[in-house]
Amino acid sequence: MSTPTTSPRAVHSTWSATLRIVVGASVLVALVLLAFAWPTHTAKVKDMPLAVAGAPQAVAAVEKQLATAAEGAFSIHEVTDRAAAEEMVKKREAYGAIVLPSAPGGQTEVLTASAGSAVVTQALGQVAAGMNAAQAQAAQAQAAASGTAPAAVVPVKVTDIVPLVKDDARGQGFMLIGLPMAMGGMIGGVLIAMTITGSRRRLAAITGYAVLAGLLLTFVVHTWFGWLPANFMTSWGAMALTLAATASAIVGLHALIGRAGIAIGAILTMFVGNPLSSLAMPKEWLPSFWGELGQFFVPGASGNLLRSLAYFPDASTVRPWLVLTGWAVVGIVLSLMGRHRDEEVVHLEGMVEPDAS
Fold first, then answer.
1. What's the CA gap between 201 and 189, in Å, rounded?
2. Alpha-carbon span 159 to 35, nearest angstrom
């Protein structure tokens, strides 16, 4: 005769545990919102490098006019002529330039680079409009004083010397590239850390993933969508190194401290590096040193590198290459450190006597 069995009663969570989950999840989602919204909320139009070419007195007058119209918005760099101003813009040492006429009655020219920053280009367009209005007011005042008809005003010319490509005329596509690269590095790093053992196999997996995934991403944004008008091989190298940097850091942190390392890597990538990357706005707009600090994280360095490769071949790319390489190397070092710890654990476990029972 079989003994009747009773089904076990479900163990319910305590009310205190339920409350902790509710509060913890609420705080977490608020922190996520804060991480992404804080840079935009605290951004201030300030300190944008602007080259101004012209006679010293004319440059001083423009600087005073800009300070009155938008105090602190621009950091003025005086240059000798249009060629020097254009060189600064193309080397990404300035976001734009104002070229003043060499003779009275000549035409003022505003040089923009929409590929560098669409929001700065819009701001410089407003500067050109303000200069046109100021010239018209001056002509009317002079005419009223002399009792003659207002003289014809030569409008300010706006020239985009580094325009965006036709397939990404508003720059939205380029800004979207950053998220797949950050997410791609995280996805690869987490999968490799959780499924592959052995430091050499992990390093081989990181390399293979970076090369293959970088190739696919480059094909999509460069060849298919046309968002990245740079040399294919160079873009592929930048994409691959970006993915390797994030994946290597996550795998290394996991090898060193376990699953907490994955969380730390994800936080550094998505909730610190990505909001501070300055892909959507100039780094000068962020408070204090945060904009510059963001360029030392993978999203900021990769975005800066890809923008220069695509649109500013004269700009230096040494720092972003070094930053991305540094993250990849640190990840490898952490992986090797973690390997020795894992070997020690395996060795000690092998020394345990089997249970005689």
1. 13
2. 36
What is the number of other CB atoms lying within 10 angstroms of the CB of residue 54? Answer: 22
Q: How does pLDDT run along the chain (357 residues), one tens digit per residue?
A: 555 555 566 677 788 888 989 998 898 888 888 888 888 888 888 999 999 999 999 899 899 888 887 788 999 999 999 999 999 999 999 999 999 998 877 899 999 999 999 999 999 999 999 888 888 887 788 777 777 777 677 899 999 999 999 999 888 898 889 889 999 999 999 999 999 998 899 999 999 999 999 999 999 999 999 999 999 999 999 999 999 999 999 999 999 999 999 999 999 999 999 999 998 889 999 988 899 999 999 999 999 999 999 999 999 999 999 999 999 999 999 999 886 555 444 444 444 444 444
Tokens of 261: 């390392």
Report residue 278 CA to chain centroid gap.
4
Rounded to whole angstroms, the Cα distance separating 296 from 249 reads 14
- The reported pTM is 0.86
